[in-house]
Every structure is written in C-alpha cells, then in structure tokens.
Hints:
Number of helices: 4
Mean pLDDT: 90
Order of helices and strands: HHHH
Number of domains: 2
Distance between the termini: 59 Å
Amino acid sequence: MSNTQVETVTSGADKFKLVAAVLLLVGALVAFYALSAKGGLVQWGALLALLAAALLAFFTSESGKSLIAYGQDSVRETRKVVWPAPKEAMQMTGYVFAFVVVMALFLWLTDKTLEWVLYDLILGWRR
C-alpha cells in the first residue's frame, strides 16, 4: 500500500488565487464571445490577456507551484532513462513487426481452419 498524502488547499490566499484563476478563465471565455462585434483583434486580445492572468494566478498558488515541481521532476527522471542506440531501436522495431506478421498469419490460418471444419465438415455448407 502506498503512503501518498493528499494535499488540500488550506490557506486563504491559495483559495483566493484558485478562485481568481477560475473566474479569470470564465471571464476570458465570456469576453471572447461578448466582444465578437468589436473585431477579431480585440476579441483575441481580451481572450489571451485574461488567459495569461488566469495562468499567472494559478501558477502563483501552491497547487500551481506543485504542478511546476512535478513537471521538473518528470523531466529530471526522463533524463535518467537509458535510451537504446538507434541500431538497437531499429532491431527491436523489426522484431515487433515480424512478430505481428507471424501472429496475423497464425490467426488467419486458425480462422480459415475453423471455418473449414465448422462449415464444410460439420454443417456441410458448401460455398
């Protein structure tokens, strides 16, 4: 059993930042559609400005900071992976393709054999 802890938003400032981020996101969508008569530049400008403000509010909260830390940890762990050499990768890809072809032939042969046994031998249906 894993010993993971669930973090909840406890500080008032964090709750305010998250609520502000959600309200800014909703405001961005409302502004985009409400400003459709003003032209595309104003419409898209308002959308992008409010989305940037929402992202700023989210990433300054503890939830946003922990998301950034998680992303950084993921990148750090990805760099630790020992990737195969190009020659080895091509060989393994070839093995996978060969296995798929062999399995496809096996399943086709099994299907045709069962079809022959059931329809021709047992039921006597000739096509």
